[in-house]
Specification:
Helix content of chain A: 10-25%
Number of strands of chain B: 19
Radius of gyration of chain B: 27 Å
Shape of chain A: elongated
Largest sheet of chain A: 7 strands, antiparallel
Order of helices and strands of chain A: HEEEEEEEEEEEEEEEEEEEEH
Low-confidence stretches of chain A: none
Largest sheet of chain B: 8 strands, antiparallel
Strand content of chain B: 35-45%
Shape of chain B: elongated
Distance between the termini of chain B: 29 Å
Number of helices of chain A: 2
Number of domains of chain A: 2
Oligomer: heterodimer
Mean pLDDT of chain B: 88
Distance between the termini of chain A: 21 Å
Amino acid sequence: MRALSTAATGMMAMDLNVQVIANNLANMTTTGYKRQRATFQDLLYDHVSRIGTQTSAQGNILPVGIDVGSGVKTVGTARLMTQGTLTSTGNALDVAIRGDGFFKIQMPDGTYAYSRDGSFQMDAQGRIVTPKGNVVMPAITIPQNSSGLTINAQGQVSVIQQGSTTPTVLGQITITRFINQAGLLPIGDNLYTETPASGSPQDGLPGTDGAGDLLQGNLEQSNVDSVSEITNLIAAQRAYEMNGKVITAADQMLSTASNLMR
Amino acid sequence: MENILLVGLSRQVSLGREMDVVANNIANINTTGYKADGSLFAEYLSSNARTGSSSSRISFVQDSGVWHDMSQGVVERTGNPLDVAIDGQGFLVVQTPRGERYTRNGSLQINAQGQLVTSDGNQVLGDAGPITFQPKDQQVSISRDGTISVREGSSNVDTVRGRLRLVDFANPQQLQKEGAGTFSAPDGAAPQPAPKAAIVQGSLEKSNVRSVVEMSRMIEITRAYTQVANLLQQQGDVSQQAIDKLADVPA
Protein backbone atom coordinates (compact mmCIF):
# COMPACT_ATOMS: atom_id res chain seq x y z
CA MET A 1 0.00 0.00 0.00
CA ARG A 2 1.41 3.38 -1.08
CA ALA A 3 -0.07 5.17 1.95
CA LEU A 4 2.64 3.65 4.17
CA SER A 5 5.55 5.16 2.25
CA THR A 6 3.64 8.40 1.63
CA ALA A 7 3.14 8.91 5.36
CA ALA A 8 6.80 7.99 5.93
CA THR A 9 7.90 10.87 3.65
CA GLY A 10 5.62 13.15 5.70
CA MET A 11 7.25 12.04 8.95
CA MET A 12 10.77 12.50 7.55
CA ALA A 13 9.92 16.00 6.31
CA MET A 14 8.46 17.03 9.66
CA ASP A 15 11.49 15.54 11.44
CA LEU A 16 13.74 17.82 9.39
CA ASN A 17 11.38 20.74 10.02
CA VAL A 18 11.76 20.24 13.78
CA GLN A 19 15.57 20.12 13.40
CA VAL A 20 15.56 23.46 11.55
CA ILE A 21 13.26 25.04 14.15
CA ALA A 22 15.45 23.68 16.97
CA ASN A 23 18.53 25.26 15.38
CA ASN A 24 16.71 28.59 15.05
CA LEU A 25 15.65 28.51 18.69
CA ALA A 26 19.14 27.49 19.82
CA ASN A 27 20.53 30.54 17.98
CA MET A 28 17.94 32.99 19.27
CA THR A 29 20.58 35.13 20.96
CA THR A 30 23.38 34.58 18.41
CA THR A 31 24.60 37.93 17.07
CA GLY A 32 23.81 38.36 13.37
CA TYR A 33 22.12 34.94 13.06
CA LYS A 34 19.58 34.68 10.23
CA ARG A 35 16.76 32.23 10.71
CA GLN A 36 16.19 29.30 8.36
CA ARG A 37 12.93 27.94 7.06
CA ALA A 38 12.41 24.44 5.68
CA THR A 39 10.37 24.54 2.48
CA PHE A 40 8.40 21.54 1.25
CA GLN A 41 6.95 20.42 -2.06
CA ASP A 42 4.68 17.58 -3.07
CA LEU A 43 6.35 14.60 -4.75
CA LEU A 44 5.52 13.19 -8.17
CA TYR A 45 2.02 11.98 -8.98
CA ASP A 46 1.02 8.63 -10.39
CA HIS A 47 -1.45 9.46 -13.15
CA VAL A 48 -3.66 6.36 -12.86
CA SER A 49 -6.06 7.79 -15.38
CA ARG A 50 -5.14 10.90 -17.28
CA ILE A 51 -7.35 13.95 -17.54
CA GLY A 52 -8.67 14.39 -21.06
CA THR A 53 -8.53 10.71 -22.04
CA GLN A 54 -11.23 9.85 -24.58
CA THR A 55 -13.94 7.71 -23.09
CA SER A 56 -16.00 7.15 -26.21
CA ALA A 57 -15.74 7.29 -29.97
CA GLN A 58 -17.96 10.40 -29.83
CA GLY A 59 -15.10 12.35 -28.35
CA ASN A 60 -16.23 12.43 -24.73
CA ILE A 61 -13.29 13.05 -22.50
CA LEU A 62 -12.60 12.42 -18.80
CA PRO A 63 -13.22 15.68 -16.93
CA VAL A 64 -11.09 14.59 -13.99
CA GLY A 65 -8.27 12.06 -13.86
CA ILE A 66 -6.92 9.96 -11.05
CA ASP A 67 -3.67 11.43 -9.76
CA VAL A 68 -2.31 9.73 -6.70
CA GLY A 69 0.53 11.59 -5.04
CA SER A 70 3.46 9.93 -3.34
CA GLY A 71 4.21 12.31 -0.48
CA VAL A 72 6.32 15.30 0.33
CA LYS A 73 9.96 16.30 -0.02
CA THR A 74 12.12 19.01 1.48
CA VAL A 75 13.30 21.34 -1.24
CA GLY A 76 15.52 23.57 0.83
CA THR A 77 16.22 25.28 4.10
CA ALA A 78 16.22 28.85 2.88
CA ARG A 79 17.74 31.53 5.07
CA LEU A 80 15.61 34.61 5.65
CA MET A 81 17.94 37.58 5.36
CA THR A 82 15.74 40.15 7.06
CA GLN A 83 17.20 42.78 9.36
CA GLY A 84 17.60 41.80 13.00
CA THR A 85 16.95 44.21 15.85
CA LEU A 86 19.88 46.46 16.79
CA THR A 87 20.76 46.70 20.46
CA SER A 88 23.09 49.23 21.92
CA THR A 89 26.10 47.78 23.77
CA GLY A 90 28.26 50.88 24.21
CA ASN A 91 31.37 48.92 23.19
CA ALA A 92 33.46 50.90 20.67
CA LEU A 93 34.32 47.78 18.63
CA ASP A 94 30.74 46.51 18.32
CA VAL A 95 29.46 47.41 14.85
CA ALA A 96 26.07 46.58 13.36
CA ILE A 97 25.07 46.77 9.69
CA ARG A 98 21.78 48.55 9.13
CA GLY A 99 20.65 47.36 5.69
CA ASP A 100 22.12 44.95 3.16
CA GLY A 101 25.62 43.52 3.11
CA PHE A 102 28.23 41.59 5.06
CA PHE A 103 31.58 42.26 6.70
CA LYS A 104 34.45 40.70 4.75
CA ILE A 105 36.62 38.48 6.93
CA GLN A 106 39.97 36.96 5.95
CA MET A 107 40.27 33.34 6.98
CA PRO A 108 43.59 31.78 8.10
CA ASP A 109 43.98 30.09 4.66
CA GLY A 110 43.74 33.45 2.86
CA THR A 111 40.20 32.97 1.53
CA TYR A 112 37.36 35.29 2.46
CA ALA A 113 34.26 34.64 4.48
CA TYR A 114 31.37 37.00 5.14
CA SER A 115 29.55 37.79 8.35
CA ARG A 116 26.83 40.00 9.83
CA ASP A 117 28.32 39.59 13.30
CA GLY A 118 30.13 42.85 14.16
CA SER A 119 31.32 42.03 17.68
CA PHE A 120 34.96 42.80 16.90
CA GLN A 121 38.08 42.70 19.05
CA MET A 122 41.61 43.97 18.76
CA ASP A 123 44.53 41.56 18.45
CA ALA A 124 48.11 41.91 19.75
CA GLN A 125 49.15 43.89 16.64
CA GLY A 126 46.25 46.30 17.06
CA ARG A 127 44.29 44.93 14.09
CA ILE A 128 40.49 44.75 14.14
CA VAL A 129 39.58 41.03 14.26
CA THR A 130 36.58 38.79 14.86
CA PRO A 131 36.25 36.97 18.23
CA LYS A 132 38.02 34.03 16.52
CA GLY A 133 41.01 36.25 15.59
CA ASN A 134 40.33 36.51 11.85
CA VAL A 135 41.13 39.88 10.33
CA VAL A 136 38.29 42.16 9.23
CA MET A 137 39.00 43.43 5.70
CA PRO A 138 40.56 45.77 4.78
CA ALA A 139 43.02 45.23 7.62
CA ILE A 140 43.07 48.30 9.86
CA THR A 141 45.77 48.62 12.51
CA ILE A 142 45.05 50.84 15.47
CA PRO A 143 48.24 52.48 16.78
CA GLN A 144 49.24 52.08 20.40
CA ASN A 145 48.40 54.76 22.93
CA SER A 146 45.65 56.17 20.74
CA SER A 147 42.22 56.98 22.12
CA GLY A 148 38.74 57.87 20.98
CA LEU A 149 38.17 55.08 18.46
CA THR A 150 35.25 56.03 16.22
CA ILE A 151 33.66 54.12 13.36
CA ASN A 152 31.23 56.29 11.42
CA ALA A 153 28.22 55.28 9.35
CA GLN A 154 30.40 55.08 6.19
CA GLY A 155 32.83 52.73 7.93
CA GLN A 156 35.68 55.20 8.42
CA VAL A 157 37.76 54.22 11.43
CA SER A 158 39.42 57.15 13.15
CA VAL A 159 41.37 57.62 16.39
CA ILE A 160 42.98 60.47 18.26
CA GLN A 161 46.68 59.72 18.36
CA GLN A 162 48.94 60.56 21.26
CA GLY A 163 49.92 64.21 21.28
CA SER A 164 47.24 65.19 18.79
CA THR A 165 43.84 66.76 19.28
CA THR A 166 42.31 66.01 15.88
CA PRO A 167 41.16 62.55 14.81
CA THR A 168 43.19 60.65 12.18
CA VAL A 169 41.35 58.42 9.69
CA LEU A 170 43.02 54.98 9.67
CA GLY A 171 40.93 53.27 7.00
CA GLN A 172 37.44 52.40 5.89
CA ILE A 173 35.64 49.10 6.57
CA THR A 174 34.03 47.72 3.40
CA ILE A 175 30.70 45.99 3.01
CA THR A 176 30.21 43.10 0.57
CA ARG A 177 26.88 42.46 -1.11
CA PHE A 178 25.58 39.43 -3.00
CA ILE A 179 22.71 39.38 -5.45
CA ASN A 180 21.35 36.22 -3.80
CA GLN A 181 22.20 36.44 -0.11
CA ALA A 182 20.13 33.35 0.63
CA GLY A 183 22.54 31.36 -1.61
CA LEU A 184 25.53 31.85 0.71
CA LEU A 185 26.92 28.74 2.40
CA PRO A 186 26.92 28.86 6.21
CA ILE A 187 30.18 27.48 7.63
CA GLY A 188 29.47 28.07 11.33
CA ASP A 189 31.03 30.72 13.58
CA ASN A 190 28.48 33.21 12.10
CA LEU A 191 30.35 33.05 8.77
CA TYR A 192 29.19 32.45 5.23
CA THR A 193 31.15 31.72 2.05
CA GLU A 194 30.45 32.45 -1.59
CA THR A 195 28.75 29.76 -3.74
CA PRO A 196 27.74 29.57 -7.40
CA ALA A 197 24.19 30.33 -6.25
CA SER A 198 25.04 33.49 -4.34
CA GLY A 199 26.68 35.28 -7.28
CA SER A 200 30.07 36.95 -7.03
CA PRO A 201 30.83 39.28 -4.12
CA GLN A 202 30.51 43.01 -4.76
CA ASP A 203 32.68 45.01 -2.39
CA GLY A 204 31.46 48.51 -1.67
CA LEU A 205 31.51 51.23 0.92
CA PRO A 206 28.86 51.33 3.64
CA GLY A 207 25.90 53.53 2.80
CA THR A 208 26.54 53.56 -0.95
CA ASP A 209 25.04 51.62 -3.84
CA GLY A 210 22.48 49.81 -1.74
CA ALA A 211 24.90 48.64 0.96
CA GLY A 212 23.77 49.22 4.53
CA ASP A 213 25.46 51.72 6.81
CA LEU A 214 27.30 50.97 10.04
CA LEU A 215 26.31 51.74 13.60
CA GLN A 216 29.09 51.79 16.16
CA GLY A 217 28.30 50.58 19.69
CA ASN A 218 25.46 48.36 18.44
CA LEU A 219 25.05 44.68 17.65
CA GLU A 220 22.52 43.05 15.35
CA GLN A 221 20.44 40.47 17.20
CA SER A 222 19.27 37.30 15.49
CA ASN A 223 16.08 37.68 13.44
CA VAL A 224 14.51 34.61 15.07
CA ASP A 225 10.95 35.36 16.16
CA SER A 226 10.26 33.07 19.10
CA VAL A 227 6.47 33.15 18.76
CA SER A 228 6.44 32.08 15.12
CA GLU A 229 9.09 29.41 15.79
CA ILE A 230 7.02 27.92 18.60
CA THR A 231 3.83 27.90 16.52
CA ASN A 232 5.78 26.27 13.67
CA LEU A 233 7.09 23.70 16.15
CA ILE A 234 3.54 22.87 17.28
CA ALA A 235 2.37 22.55 13.66
CA ALA A 236 5.35 20.31 12.78
CA GLN A 237 4.80 18.07 15.80
CA ARG A 238 1.08 17.65 15.08
CA ALA A 239 1.77 16.93 11.41
CA TYR A 240 4.27 14.29 12.49
CA GLU A 241 1.66 12.68 14.75
CA MET A 242 -0.97 12.70 12.02
CA ASN A 243 1.40 11.01 9.57
CA GLY A 244 2.04 8.41 12.26
CA LYS A 245 -1.71 7.81 12.49
CA VAL A 246 -1.84 7.28 8.71
CA ILE A 247 0.80 4.57 9.05
CA THR A 248 -1.25 2.91 11.83
CA ALA A 249 -4.42 3.06 9.71
CA ALA A 250 -2.69 1.68 6.61
CA ASP A 251 -1.21 -1.07 8.76
CA GLN A 252 -4.69 -1.95 10.04
CA MET A 253 -6.03 -2.16 6.51
CA LEU A 254 -3.17 -4.42 5.46
CA SER A 255 -3.69 -6.66 8.46
CA THR A 256 -7.43 -6.82 7.70
CA ALA A 257 -6.59 -7.87 4.17
CA SER A 258 -4.12 -10.51 5.30
CA ASN A 259 -6.60 -11.88 7.88
CA LEU A 260 -9.04 -12.63 5.08
CA MET A 261 -7.11 -15.78 4.38
CA ARG A 262 -7.45 -18.42 7.01
CA MET B 1 -22.08 -16.38 -5.83
CA GLU B 2 -18.60 -15.13 -6.73
CA ASN B 3 -20.19 -11.78 -7.55
CA ILE B 4 -20.16 -10.89 -3.86
CA LEU B 5 -16.43 -11.49 -3.69
CA LEU B 6 -15.86 -9.37 -6.77
CA VAL B 7 -18.06 -6.50 -5.56
CA GLY B 8 -16.22 -6.54 -2.24
CA LEU B 9 -12.90 -6.62 -4.02
CA SER B 10 -13.82 -3.60 -6.17
CA ARG B 11 -14.66 -1.66 -2.99
CA GLN B 12 -11.41 -2.64 -1.31
CA VAL B 13 -9.31 -1.61 -4.31
CA SER B 14 -10.98 1.81 -4.43
CA LEU B 15 -10.70 2.26 -0.65
CA GLY B 16 -7.00 1.45 -0.89
CA ARG B 17 -6.56 4.18 -3.45
CA GLU B 18 -8.58 6.67 -1.42
CA MET B 19 -6.29 5.91 1.51
CA ASP B 20 -3.27 6.78 -0.69
CA VAL B 21 -4.87 10.13 -1.56
CA VAL B 22 -5.58 10.90 2.13
CA ALA B 23 -2.00 9.90 3.06
CA ASN B 24 -0.64 12.29 0.42
CA ASN B 25 -2.82 15.11 1.78
CA ILE B 26 -1.61 14.55 5.32
CA ALA B 27 2.03 14.27 4.20
CA ASN B 28 1.61 17.70 2.57
CA ILE B 29 -0.11 19.39 5.50
CA ASN B 30 2.81 21.85 5.82
CA THR B 31 3.56 22.27 2.10
CA THR B 32 3.24 25.87 0.94
CA GLY B 33 0.53 26.38 -1.70
CA TYR B 34 -0.53 22.70 -1.65
CA LYS B 35 -4.10 21.95 -2.73
CA ALA B 36 -5.86 18.96 -1.17
CA ASP B 37 -7.17 16.11 -3.31
CA GLY B 38 -10.43 14.23 -2.93
CA SER B 39 -11.56 10.92 -4.44
CA LEU B 40 -14.62 10.39 -6.61
CA PHE B 41 -16.33 7.04 -6.91
CA ALA B 42 -18.72 5.81 -9.53
CA GLU B 43 -21.08 2.88 -9.78
CA TYR B 44 -20.08 0.45 -12.47
CA LEU B 45 -22.84 -1.73 -13.86
CA SER B 46 -21.66 -4.94 -15.32
CA SER B 47 -23.68 -6.07 -18.30
CA ASN B 48 -23.08 -9.75 -17.65
CA ALA B 49 -23.14 -10.08 -13.89
CA ARG B 50 -26.69 -10.56 -12.65
CA THR B 51 -28.22 -11.76 -9.41
CA GLY B 52 -29.41 -15.25 -10.13
CA SER B 53 -32.46 -15.40 -12.36
CA SER B 54 -33.72 -11.91 -11.63
CA SER B 55 -32.98 -9.12 -14.00
CA SER B 56 -31.37 -6.75 -11.51
CA ARG B 57 -27.80 -6.16 -12.40
CA ILE B 58 -24.82 -6.19 -10.06
CA SER B 59 -23.10 -2.89 -9.54
CA PHE B 60 -19.44 -2.63 -8.71
CA VAL B 61 -17.63 0.43 -7.42
CA GLN B 62 -14.73 2.08 -9.15
CA ASP B 63 -12.74 5.19 -8.46
CA SER B 64 -13.55 7.54 -11.29
CA GLY B 65 -11.36 10.48 -10.46
CA VAL B 66 -9.42 12.65 -8.08
CA TRP B 67 -10.57 16.23 -7.74
CA HIS B 68 -8.51 19.15 -6.48
CA ASP B 69 -9.86 21.30 -3.68
CA MET B 70 -8.93 24.71 -5.11
CA SER B 71 -10.13 26.69 -2.11
CA GLN B 72 -7.92 29.36 -0.63
CA GLY B 73 -5.41 28.20 1.99
CA VAL B 74 -4.66 30.19 5.10
CA VAL B 75 -2.34 33.14 4.38
CA GLU B 76 0.45 33.27 6.92
CA ARG B 77 2.53 36.40 7.48
CA THR B 78 6.29 35.71 7.21
CA GLY B 79 7.71 39.20 6.76
CA ASN B 80 10.12 37.98 4.07
CA PRO B 81 9.90 40.43 1.11
CA LEU B 82 10.25 37.61 -1.45
CA ASP B 83 7.32 35.59 -0.06
CA VAL B 84 4.10 36.20 -1.97
CA ALA B 85 0.65 34.71 -1.41
CA ILE B 86 -2.10 34.81 -4.02
CA ASP B 87 -5.40 36.10 -2.70
CA GLY B 88 -8.17 34.73 -4.89
CA GLN B 89 -8.26 32.30 -7.80
CA GLY B 90 -5.05 32.45 -9.85
CA PHE B 91 -1.59 31.01 -10.39
CA LEU B 92 1.96 32.23 -10.84
CA VAL B 93 3.58 31.17 -14.12
CA VAL B 94 6.85 29.23 -13.85
CA GLN B 95 9.20 28.41 -16.73
CA THR B 96 10.34 24.79 -16.29
CA PRO B 97 12.47 22.70 -18.66
CA ARG B 98 9.20 21.00 -19.75
CA GLY B 99 7.39 24.24 -20.53
CA GLU B 100 5.20 26.64 -18.63
CA ARG B 101 3.79 25.39 -15.35
CA TYR B 102 1.48 27.02 -12.83
CA THR B 103 1.91 27.24 -9.07
CA ARG B 104 0.50 28.88 -5.96
CA ASN B 105 3.71 28.37 -4.00
CA GLY B 106 5.02 31.95 -3.66
CA SER B 107 8.18 31.20 -1.69
CA LEU B 108 10.46 32.96 -4.20
CA GLN B 109 14.22 33.43 -4.35
CA ILE B 110 16.73 35.36 -6.43
CA ASN B 111 19.36 33.31 -8.25
CA ALA B 112 23.02 34.18 -8.95
CA GLN B 113 21.97 35.90 -12.20
CA GLY B 114 19.54 38.11 -10.31
CA GLN B 115 16.46 36.39 -11.74
CA LEU B 116 13.34 35.79 -9.67
CA VAL B 117 13.04 32.00 -9.26
CA THR B 118 11.09 29.39 -7.29
CA SER B 119 12.75 27.24 -4.61
CA ASP B 120 13.49 24.76 -7.44
CA GLY B 121 15.42 27.37 -9.41
CA ASN B 122 12.81 27.69 -12.17
CA GLN B 123 12.19 31.22 -13.43
CA VAL B 124 9.01 32.97 -12.37
CA LEU B 125 7.57 34.75 -15.38
CA GLY B 126 6.36 38.31 -15.52
CA ASP B 127 4.23 39.94 -18.19
CA ALA B 128 7.41 40.46 -20.24
CA GLY B 129 9.30 37.24 -19.50
CA PRO B 130 11.66 36.52 -16.57
CA ILE B 131 12.11 39.23 -13.94
CA THR B 132 15.73 40.24 -13.40
CA PHE B 133 17.15 42.32 -10.58
CA GLN B 134 20.31 44.42 -10.78
CA PRO B 135 23.20 43.94 -8.31
CA LYS B 136 22.51 47.26 -6.56
CA ASP B 137 18.77 46.74 -6.11
CA GLN B 138 17.37 46.84 -2.62
CA GLN B 139 14.00 47.14 -0.85
CA VAL B 140 11.99 44.90 -3.18
CA SER B 141 8.33 45.78 -2.99
CA ILE B 142 5.55 43.86 -4.74
CA SER B 143 2.19 45.57 -5.10
CA ARG B 144 -1.22 43.87 -5.03
CA ASP B 145 -1.33 43.72 -8.84
CA GLY B 146 2.10 42.04 -8.90
CA THR B 147 4.21 45.03 -9.94
CA ILE B 148 7.74 44.57 -8.60
CA SER B 149 9.62 47.76 -7.80
CA VAL B 150 13.01 48.31 -6.19
CA ARG B 151 15.27 51.12 -5.09
CA GLU B 152 18.43 50.96 -7.18
CA GLY B 153 21.59 51.93 -5.30
CA SER B 154 21.14 55.13 -3.30
CA SER B 155 18.26 56.34 -5.48
CA ASN B 156 15.14 57.63 -3.78
CA VAL B 157 12.78 56.73 -6.62
CA ASP B 158 11.27 53.35 -7.33
CA THR B 159 12.34 51.50 -10.45
CA VAL B 160 9.90 48.92 -11.84
CA ARG B 161 11.52 45.56 -12.61
CA GLY B 162 8.44 43.83 -14.01
CA ARG B 163 5.00 42.58 -13.12
CA LEU B 164 4.23 39.05 -11.99
CA ARG B 165 2.02 37.24 -14.47
CA LEU B 166 -1.10 35.90 -12.80
CA VAL B 167 -3.26 33.48 -14.77
CA ASP B 168 -6.43 31.55 -14.22
CA PHE B 169 -8.31 28.81 -16.06
CA ALA B 170 -11.94 28.46 -17.05
CA ASN B 171 -11.97 25.04 -15.39
CA PRO B 172 -9.16 24.67 -12.83
CA GLN B 173 -10.19 21.02 -12.26
CA GLN B 174 -8.62 20.24 -15.63
CA LEU B 175 -5.20 21.08 -14.29
CA GLN B 176 -2.97 18.16 -13.54
CA LYS B 177 -0.65 18.01 -10.56
CA GLU B 178 2.97 17.54 -11.56
CA GLY B 179 4.59 17.47 -8.13
CA ALA B 180 6.82 20.20 -6.68
CA GLY B 181 3.72 22.34 -6.17
CA THR B 182 3.19 22.80 -9.90
CA PHE B 183 0.19 22.18 -12.14
CA SER B 184 0.24 21.60 -15.88
CA ALA B 185 -2.56 22.59 -18.21
CA PRO B 186 -3.92 20.04 -20.71
CA ASP B 187 -4.03 20.89 -24.40
CA GLY B 188 -6.80 23.34 -25.16
CA ALA B 189 -6.94 24.84 -21.68
CA ALA B 190 -5.46 28.25 -22.33
CA PRO B 191 -4.37 30.36 -19.38
CA GLN B 192 -6.28 33.62 -19.09
CA PRO B 193 -5.29 36.74 -17.14
CA ALA B 194 -6.59 36.72 -13.58
CA PRO B 195 -7.53 40.31 -12.79
CA LYS B 196 -9.36 39.38 -9.59
CA ALA B 197 -6.40 37.64 -7.98
CA ALA B 198 -4.19 39.83 -5.84
CA ILE B 199 -0.64 39.43 -4.56
CA VAL B 200 0.07 39.75 -0.84
CA GLN B 201 3.76 40.44 -0.21
CA GLY B 202 5.50 39.09 2.90
CA SER B 203 3.05 36.22 3.28
CA LEU B 204 2.74 32.61 2.21
CA GLU B 205 -0.34 30.56 1.46
CA LYS B 206 -0.34 27.48 3.66
CA SER B 207 -1.62 24.12 2.49
CA ASN B 208 -5.44 23.97 2.41
CA VAL B 209 -5.53 20.44 3.86
CA ARG B 210 -8.01 20.36 6.76
CA SER B 211 -6.54 17.94 9.26
CA VAL B 212 -9.83 17.09 10.98
CA VAL B 213 -11.52 16.26 7.68
CA GLU B 214 -8.60 14.09 6.56
CA MET B 215 -8.40 12.27 9.90
CA SER B 216 -12.12 11.50 9.95
CA ARG B 217 -11.96 10.39 6.33
CA MET B 218 -9.13 8.05 7.25
CA ILE B 219 -11.18 6.50 10.06
CA GLU B 220 -14.09 6.11 7.64
CA ILE B 221 -11.82 4.34 5.13
CA THR B 222 -10.34 1.89 7.65
CA ARG B 223 -13.81 1.07 9.05
CA ALA B 224 -15.33 0.56 5.61
CA TYR B 225 -12.35 -1.61 4.65
CA THR B 226 -12.86 -3.79 7.73
CA GLN B 227 -16.59 -4.05 7.07
CA VAL B 228 -16.02 -5.21 3.51
CA ALA B 229 -13.44 -7.68 4.78
CA ASN B 230 -15.98 -9.07 7.29
CA LEU B 231 -18.52 -9.36 4.52
CA LEU B 232 -16.07 -11.32 2.39
CA GLN B 233 -15.22 -13.51 5.38
CA GLN B 234 -18.89 -14.35 5.94
CA GLN B 235 -19.32 -15.06 2.27
CA GLY B 236 -16.34 -17.39 2.48
CA ASP B 237 -17.95 -19.16 5.45
CA VAL B 238 -21.19 -19.57 3.51
CA SER B 239 -19.32 -21.17 0.61
CA GLN B 240 -17.36 -23.36 2.99
CA GLN B 241 -20.53 -24.59 4.69
CA ALA B 242 -22.24 -25.16 1.38
CA ILE B 243 -19.34 -27.30 0.23
CA ASP B 244 -19.22 -29.21 3.53
CA LYS B 245 -22.98 -29.84 3.69
CA LEU B 246 -23.68 -30.52 0.04
CA ALA B 247 -20.67 -32.72 -0.49
CA ASP B 248 -21.37 -34.68 2.69
CA VAL B 249 -22.41 -37.83 0.94
CA PRO B 250 -23.15 -40.65 3.43
CA ALA B 251 -20.97 -43.58 2.76
